[in-house]
UniProtKB/TrEMBL annotation:
The lineage of its organism: Bacteria, Pseudomonadati, Planctomycetota, Planctomycetia, Pirellulales. This is Extracellular solute-binding protein. Gene3D superfamilies: Periplasmic binding protein-like II. It comes from Rhodopirellula halodulae. InterPro entries: Ferric-bd. The keyword Signal applies. Keywords: Signal. Signal peptide: none annotated. The keyword tRNA processing does not apply.
Amino acid sequence: MSLKTVWLFRRLFSAILVGLGGLFASMTLGMTGCVSRSESDVVVYSALDEEFAAPILASFERSTDHEIGVIGKFDIESTKTVGLANQLIAEAKSPRCDLFWNNEIMHTVRLQKLGLLEPHDWDVPSTWPTDMIASDGTWCGFAARARVLLINTDLLAQKENWPSQVAELADEKWSQRCAMARPLFGTTATHFAVLRDLLGPDAAFDLLQQIHDNAVILSGNKQVAQAVSSGKVAWGLTDTDDAIIEKDLGYPVAIVYPDQLPDQPGTLRIPNTLARIKNSPHPIASGVLANFLMTPEIEDRLAMGRSSQLPISKDSKFPPAVLPDEPVRWMRVDFEAAAEGWDEWAKTLADLFAN
């Protein structure tokens, strides 16, 4: 039986119970702290692909510790994060969603700045990276992807000739031999919003102008990874989940974590984020689900999956295959600062990358 079918049955049953004894259920909740029958389901909007998120949500439903149903809304479009974020904005006066599971972060911060998220007491250690948790507790990051360079080792056989910095996308020696996704959606948009905060708006725009003129610009990170693995370009900037797929398929590719020298910014990692929606229909149930998801065990499940996501928790027990043997220097990021002026910045980039 599908999650949606189960949810519909439970929703009907819940409605009957609420009609007969809603006041009693509310009193019981206040006395015991348990989830009342009127909160026996939770609605999740997930930008993480259904193939990864749905089994985890189903395992929550099967848990003997919870009697909460889950209905997941998944978007299959390449701009799904934008679409789901815009739907949450449209529904702000009467929310339908309880918990937003985003597969990146910038639009989560956008919702935070609009005041649409509910603070939560995230059950994470004090050592949790500060760039992975909201300053006001409205979101928390976990299970990240890294922004990496994917190299075609047939075309670039000598390791000393490999690029090692994101900025090399603008180097004329790689003219039309390197690739990047349009920085209008997803992790590429987030990446250059972060660089705008790090470098300053003018320097970031100048870099993007040079990349626009020098690199092959493609529709998405997957297309970049496939262009590298097929030999259409020598290398490209993509995400670890797209890069590891091409490597696992046996193509002649290598993954480089860029900007690792002391005077360089480090590699950017972009987490999944969880955020509870303000004034949602099932606030207590959404908190229970959020706590279930924000655990090392769930990070390990995502690390073991085909997308090989990178756990944030130091208690994670499964190192993903996409990680290199040597430690990675991660970029220090203020995602909240990077999201400032997002709409104006997005319009500027849309004009630049219109064709």
